[in-house]
Amino acid sequence: MKMNGARILLECLKKEGVDTVFGYPGGTVINIYDELHGFKDIHHILPRHEQAGVHAADGYARATGRVGVAIATSGPGATNTVTGIATAYMDSIPVVIITGQVPTPLIGNDAFQEVDIIGITRPCTKHNFLVRDVNELAGILKKAFYIARSGRPGPVLVDIPKDVQIAQAEFKYPEKVDIRGYKPNLEGHPKQVERAIEMLLGSRKPVVYVGGGVILANAAEELTKLCNMLEVPVTTTLMGLGAYPEDSPNSLRMLGMHGTYYANMAMTNTDVLVAIGARFDDRVTGKLATFAPHAKIIHIDVDPTSIKKNVPVDLPIVGDVKDVLFKMIKEVEAHPDKVKAFKEATKEWHEEIAAWKAKHPLTYKHAANVIKPQYVIEKLRELSDPDAIVATDVGQHQMWTAQFFTFTKPRTLLSSGGLGTMGYGLPAAMGAQAAFPKRQVIVVCGDGGFQMNLQEMATLVQNRLPVKIVILNNNFLGMVRQWQELFFDKRYSQTCMEQPIDFIKLAEAFGAKGFQATKTDEVEDTIKQGFAYDGPVIMEFKIAREEKVLPMVPAGASLNEMVLNA
Amino acid sequence: MKHTISVLVENEFGVLSRVAALFSGRGFNIDSLSVAPTNDETISRITLVTRGDDQILEQISKQLNKLIDVIKVIDFTDGSGIEREMALVKVTAEDESRAEVLRIVDIFRAKIIDVTPRSYTIEATGSPAKIDAILELLRPLGLKELVRTGPVAIGRGSKGWKG
Ligand SMILES: Cc1ncc(C[n+]2csc(CCOP(=O)(O)OP(=O)(O)O)c2C)c(N)n1
Description:
Chain A is built from 24 helices and 20 strands. Chain A has 566 residues and is an alpha/beta fold. In chain A, strand 15 (389-392), helix 18 and strand 16 form a beta-alpha-beta unit. The longest helix of chain A has 16 residues, at 134-149. Chain A is globular, with a radius of gyration of 24 Å. Chain B has 4 helices and 9 strands, in the order E-H-E-E-H-E-E-H-E-E-H-E-E. Chain B is elongated. Helix content of chain B is 31%, strand content 40%. In chain B, helix 3 packs antiparallel against helix 4. The longest helix of chain B has 15 residues, at 128-142. The structure holds thiamine diphosphate (TPP).
């Protein structure tokens, strides 16, 4: 059947199983919006800013494991998406971004609202396409979704000129994709897996180091099974939180700059390190020269470029993490005797770790007269649903959430790890809530980052998305202030946000609800009221203003050179 | 170490800038670059010369392979490939130096492709080392202008790139 390009786009989205898109209209996508009018199969959410639209699609993708979709018009609409795209790119999140483009004959002529969004987003997309012929549209969209979700996932942008949206073509959605230059290697090499297990079982001080790749590959179950079979200590990155239950005795919790003392000590002393779906980010490794100095490193990743990029690797395994973990489990099951001996041999290591845990647990000084942010997070965990989804913004509150919330399930933490994008949290939570209208979705923000996309309150109210917004208000750009305190002699240059904001009135102005706690003994009630309210709500906590995130590895220092308390 | 790398890519617009951006975005160097269509009209071939230690070269090759439009990456490590480059050289040629230029052109089996009373323009092809050598001899006579293509490379033996 013949139809126009705009309609073809919608039919393709439908074929891909897309139920929700986040988009913002404009002149070069008006034909798409015209087709969308009355199109029953796709639910459209109108954010108040295109950046937020992409973050919402990203939050939707992280929470569900499906591809998130965002639409924006050409020019300013397209450039507004860039921060969202880069955020998704750094964390390998599958998102397809559709942008409108000026009509093909005008491209390159500095037409009204023209930008070269293909050029602009080339370094921050997994791939991007300019559609030049309506007959290619369906095939390109098929490829876009396939590229976005396969291998190491990532954002893919499809730029569609207005005339292509108007032109007519026969609609045929291809069954299969074949891209000769793109054949992700998904199957881990069995011999390498065998060798990995042999190395691991031969170790005395093993550590498994887990990144977001395990969650992206939906391999948390396999990971948990393998690690529990071996009773091996597990530490995760920020992106890996939830891949392994943090309440397990084997959990070392998060490692790196604001990781636990015991995770970092374990990394410094381990003899065999198994890195799974993790990329040795500098926030994790600290000073590279002294990172895991005694360890043989096994690195499992679907993306060969991740391997040996930052650290030398003794045993690389390229493949889908889920497949490799499955094979590892089989291999372990085949050697019960060796496993028994391994558990015996690693007893001492477990004792050593237990001693570190006892010496420096994650902790903070509680106070009755002033609200400690860590206490708020602990209370949130206690009072929230077990399957609650928690988004964070970026800053101190993000690290306190990572340290004190105790994540036990994959896809329950949505946080901008790689890019560290302030303004991410609220729209990401919005996307997750759109995917799961019934689940509890909480976003933890600082007062600074909240102000970067607070207009999305309007979207929450309009779409009845009952996101619970927690603002840890220290009237500072807290994380930067902390660095200024520790490394710049308390010269608080431009990090104080003294201007009082009435967050309760602000919530009300949007048609939401606001609650505030200024004292420790109000924290619990405020959270209960916020959770009980049927709709989006702000819970503001006036926290200790100069509280620090500790422990901390100063930038460029070794993991065992932690500042424990200051 | 210097490496000559062939990259077979989809003959689509924007591919070259993807490859170039990969180098600039990661701080890798490109010494020279040449691109043109192949016997298969859907494929272009990029020949580029880059430098780096083994670790950098491994990254470059993996990153190139990761580009969706890249079909194959061939690293002509020493000996596995034949390289040829062309140079157009405008050299001062007056009085007694005219004969000297002609001698050099003859020795290197180059060609004079344009003549004026004060200059010769020479076309020289060969391995990059040969081009370097002829330039070294011509330079003292007065180089007015030099254009080099950068090498193109092909594997030795009877096999094509598909094996
Ligand atoms: C878009 C953006 N701009 C600047 C930064 C640098 N930055 C990182 S954390 C931070 C402070 C965040 O302050 P706030 O949102 O109040 O959270 P807090 O650290 O106080 O919890 C800043 C400015 C960033 N990460 N993202």
